[in-house]
Amino acid sequence: MSERTEEAGLLGKLEGYGRSDAYPFHMPGHKRQIRLGITSFPNPFSVDITEIEGFDNLHRPGGILREAMERAAGIYGSEKTYFMVNGSTGGILSAVCGLTRPGDAILMARNCHKAAYHGVMLNQLRPVYVYPRQIQGWGIQGGVSAAEVEMLLRVDQKERGKAAEHKEQGGAIKAVFITSPTYDGIVSDIRGIAEAAHRYRIPLIVDEAHGAHFPFGESFPESALECGADVVIQSLHKTLPSLTQTAVLHVKGELADAEEIERYLSVFQTSSPSYVFLASMQNCVEFMDGKGREEMRCFAARLGRWMEKAGSLQSLRVLTDEECGLAKGEARDPSKILVSPAGSGLTGTELSGILRDRFHLEAEMACKGYALFMTSFMDSEEGLKRLWEALCAIDEMNIGKMKTEDSKSITERLGAGCGSTGRIRPSDAWRAEKERIFYKDACGRLSGGFITVYPPGIPMSVPGERITENMTEWICESRGMGLTVEGVSEDGKVEVCSSSGCLNGY
């Protein structure tokens, strides 16, 4: 048997990467730093235990874990806070399934993470979509309108009244689900949306996975919990110094049944939770409630100084609040830095590649139109300086190579999935008889699965939606740029419903 080399296997590769000078402008929020009092940990094997005497049980907390979660609830201002060890996904699934029943409808933003759609499928719900606006020139999605949410709730109530008169079956909307902030950092008018939902006695669930830092920084948007949301799910690991897979779920108010959500948490979470993760969460929350607030203040100042310089770039462009055209109640998370190379002749993926290969800076995500850089208070002044100097170098290299990009067509392609109309429930399409065909031949067919460019994990096509030409163009373009397109096999095939599977329309 050959002796294991230092760089063999995943662990060796991780150790080698950790020793390199590669700088992470991506999650997790601890940025691979060990800082005393924040992320310092003993040997993980020495503290990796199971539910033994004195250490409580996450699924039936009555001791140290219960105290930690009650303390977290007090810090966040919720009535109940739950620690989660499999990320926001378990919380999203638990909230959707806990607040609805099979056959109900759910009003949801079309740019939700795929986990929300999995909840829709599992509970056999009828999705009613509200579409976010588009931010022109960037091809990214903006906020969801509170007025549109209220209009859809009003229409649903009228339709349910007519259905009752004619003794027709059809589940009413029982929950509203919004993603805020978006992956790109755009925050919706959660206060207005909550008020609209509450007028109809309907709970609002907010996927705030990318906003776990909001409650601790005055220069950042308000948390959804402060704005009236009933259930809020946050991924600590995305923007705060906590280990990957750590998240929290908050419940507040009388409209959300915490006991039902808790019941589903025991379904969607492992029965063997990591105590290393749980300790990481408690450590993170306690730190943020103390010294973390001052760290966030200093971080906001560093970001402000960085953004003041951004206007001097010529062939590269950095997204600002002004360019977002923020509506009433909307906001932008300044910790998300979006850079468009449209004036340089480069694509976002090419920009990201140059930064990786020449400057050893790793972006969170890149697509044709832009590259996304995630920052947290764990980012050093030196790290932000490296990013600035690298962008300046690329900017100077590409001055004079200006190229006009068709921003409208980019916006249309990135929002391709939002224009299609479902013919059958996602759960019915998922279970229907299906066939696999080449994606370019799938135009006009009903999708049998999810097609998702990842990250960020927002499906361009949901089971039961009609596949459009825009979608196939987006698939082709994304594969050509080397992006991950889930739901499309290596040989380019996708699942579509066979004609016999297109039943149970809604």
Structural summary, described in words:
This protein has 506 residues and is an alpha/beta fold. The protein folds into three domains: 246 residues, Type I PLP-dependent aspartate aminotransferase-like (Major domain) (Aspartate Aminotransferase, domain 2); 107 residues, Aspartate Aminotransferase, domain 1; 87 residues, Ornithine Decarboxylase, Chain A, domain 4 (Alpha-Beta Complex). The chain is 37% helix and 17% strand. It has a seven-stranded mixed β-sheet with strand order 2-11-10-9-7-3-4, with helices on both faces. A four-stranded antiparallel β-sheet has the order 12-14-17-16. Helix 4 links the parallel strand 3 and strand 4. Helix 2 packs parallel to helix 9, helix 3 packs parallel to helix 4 and helix 5 packs parallel to helix 6.
